[in-house]
Write a structure and sequence with these properties.
The complex is a heterodimer. By secondary structure, chain A is mostly beta strands. Helix content of chain A is 0%, strand content 56%. Chain B is an all-beta fold. Chain B contains no helices and eleven strands. In chain B, strands 2, 4, 5, 6, 9, 10 and 11 form a seven-stranded mixed sheet that branches. Chain B has a four-stranded antiparallel sheet with strand order 1-3-8-7, with no helix packed on it. In chain B, a hairpin with a 2-residue loop joins strand 7 and strand 8. Chain B is globular and about 40 Å long. Chain B starts with a strand and ends with a strand. Classes of the chains: A mainly beta, B mainly beta. At the A-B interface, strand 4, strand 5, strand 9 and strand 10 of A face strand 4, strand 5, strand 9 and strand 10 of B.
């Protein structure tokens, strides 16, 4: 059974810092990995999707890397801002035997990020 | 934002009553999913659909059933609600190509 772990569980940083959120998974037979952001009481917003054949993806101040063989992904946030405060979730989907996927996401517990002015 | 809505957004019901939650999409995506989110357990997959009338179970499917008679609608039914089904329910959609999932706003269900 796939297990996804996110470290740290919570992180508090001053505005302007660069920070790294970590995600690890136990089964390397993944189809893709997705990072989400969730604000309190809200739904999930997709931040970045990394296919299993890719090593990294970038969107603005966000950069996500994937090392499938070691079962790790990191989300790098540059020049953090108070508006980045949220819960960040990592999720993986398994590959089928034919190399496709039904997209059944397994989530980590999330990292609660607080960026203070 | 992806065109995905959920109804109702909030519901309070009593133990033993049937409840149906609706997910509606305007993107014509093939795949649709129901997840629940609970403190201490995170998000877990209940059921998913890979086409009209094609559905399968997820990790926590006991006590839930689903139906998909049209591409745009995916219904989640609790035949007889229990207090353990108090949760926030999220619907998600995914296109055939690419694999990125998009989530709806959620339904907060309270079973008394």
């Amino acid at each position: 059974k796939q297990e996804v772990t996110q470290i740290p569980a919570a992180l508090s940083v001053p505005e302007g810092e660069n920070l790294v959120l970590n995600c690890s998974f136990t089964d390397s037979a993944i189809y893709n990995l997705q990072w989400f952001r969730q604000d309190p009481g809200k739904g999930l917003t997709s931040l970045l999707l990394i296919q299993s054949s890719q090593r990294e993806q970038t969107s603005g101040r966000l950069n996500a890397s994937l090392d499938k063989s070691s079962g790790r992904s990191t989300l790098y946030i540059a020049a953090s801002q108070p508006g980045d405060s949220a819960t960040y979730l990592c999720a993986v989907t398994p590959s089928n035997a034919g190399g496709t996927s039904y997209g059944k996401l397994t989530f980590g517990q999330g990292t609660i990020l607080t960026v203070h002015p | 934002d992806a065109g995905i809505t959920q109804s109702p957004r909030h519901k309070v019901t009593e133990t033993g009553t049937p409840v149906t939650l609706r997910c509606h999409q305007t993107e014509n995506h093939r795949y649709m999913y129901w997840y629940r989110q609970d403190p201490g357990h995170g998000l877990r997959l209940i059921h998913y659909s890979y086409g009209v009338k094609d559905t399968d179970k997820g990790e926590v499917s006991d006590g839930y059933s689903v139906s998909r008679s049209k591409t745009e609608d995916f219904l989640l039914t609790l035949e007889s609600a229990t207090s353990s089904q108090t949760s926030v329910y999220f619907c998600a959609i995914r296109p055939e190509v690419g694999g990125e999932q998009f989530f709806g706003p959620g339904t907060r269900l309270t079973v008394l």
